[in-house]
Amino acid sequence: MALAGTSVHGVALPVVAVQVLGASPGQVSLLAAAATAPAFFFALPAGVVGDRYPKRPVMVGTDLAAAAVVAAVPVCWAAGVLSVPVLYTVALLLGTLTVLHQAASIAILPELVDRAQMHQANARIASAFSLADTAGAYGGTFVVGLVGAVRALWLDSLSYLVSAWCAWRIRPSAVRRERAGRPVRMLAGIREGLSYVMRDPIQRPMVLSLVCHAYADGIVVTYFAYTLLKRLGADSTGLGLVMGVTAVGGLVGAALATRLVDRYGPARVILAGLLAYAICAAPLLIARPGPVWLGVIALAGAVRTAAAVAAGTTQRSIRQQLCPPELQSRAQQTSVWLVTGLRTAAALTAGGLAAAFSVHTALLVGTLLHLVPAGLLWASPIRRMTAMPAPSPSKDGPRVP
């Protein structure tokens, strides 16, 4: 519910800025930056918070706070004091609360399920995330068109209240929660999390592969819609259909992830997923105008998303199974911080390549860079993993098959 709410206000806030307040393009750009900046600045502190405090109260508190922040927009509108700076403040607060909530909600999983069920649980969560993200985006667009952007935010606020109620019903394992909730100072906690990820022979290549994947994907995504609209002559309906079909791939990948790992092993699923992601980017490079090529791109996008979800849930499950309980949030947020920080760099790289050469060159470079993550994992101990990590009979933690 919280993710669906995030998708709804992601649609509604820019509409309020443009249609209600008459914001300029520069102001809309700043609003988008205000919404995404907290992911970089607060990812690491959020990891410490997630490890320092019980995660369920963090999830409930951030949902309740987000409900109040979202409701401030229609309240200010009714009072006649709504302005663009108010939207900046709302976007910043919502971005910060989202970072805190996700740091706790992702890392709470090892407190809820046994290690043997971790991958299946992550696959189900990925399926729910894909469904909520898609439903939130399309549903948000529909609701905004039906009742208006300002009134739609009342429903957005309600979704956060429902999410808070759902989070309150979660009952983590008392033993696991006690192990995960050890007090730690902020700066020392951040250093400990970074050090753990960068020194661990399994965590390090996985996180670095995610970072490289995000950088390559950021280059391609920068000009994905531009290429469809400009070079391939698609209209907004065609773009929407491509995005919709692509999103369905996430549900397929989540449904197949555990079966593929059981049959072929985690290493093969991760490596094949990363390679499939790179290969399925090729149609965008050679496509020509016409509905047939749009269909090919949409189908390739669905396969890419399925491969990404299957590989991503497998990586996350391995990392959670191997990570000590007291470092779950910080390990997760270290990768979030690195990935978020490279998104801006990827967009700037794409712009530089397009300015110096062409948009097609930027897409080509991004597609080729998608091969790097698979190379990193092939050169790491992950290549030898034939099964998911299993609990050790001793108290030393999980072992790597």
TrEMBL record:
The organism's place on the tree of life at top rank: Bacteria
SUPFAM superfamilies from the UniProt entry: MFS general substrate transporter (SSF103473)
Record keywords, A-Z: Cell membrane, Membrane, Transmembrane, Transmembrane helix, Transport
TM region(s), chain numbering: 27-48, 206-226, 238-257, 269-286, 292-314, 335-356, 362-379
Protein's cellular compartments: Cell membrane
The protein's name: MFS transporter
Topology within the bilayer: Multi-pass membrane protein
CDD domains associated with the record: MFS_MefA_like
Cellular component aspect of the GO annotation: plasma membrane
InterPro entries referenced in this protein's UniProt entry, alphabetically: MFS_trans_sf, TM_effector
Species, as recorded: Streptomyces filamentosus (Streptomyces roseosporus)
Any Pfam family hit: MFS_3
Principal subcellular localization: membrane
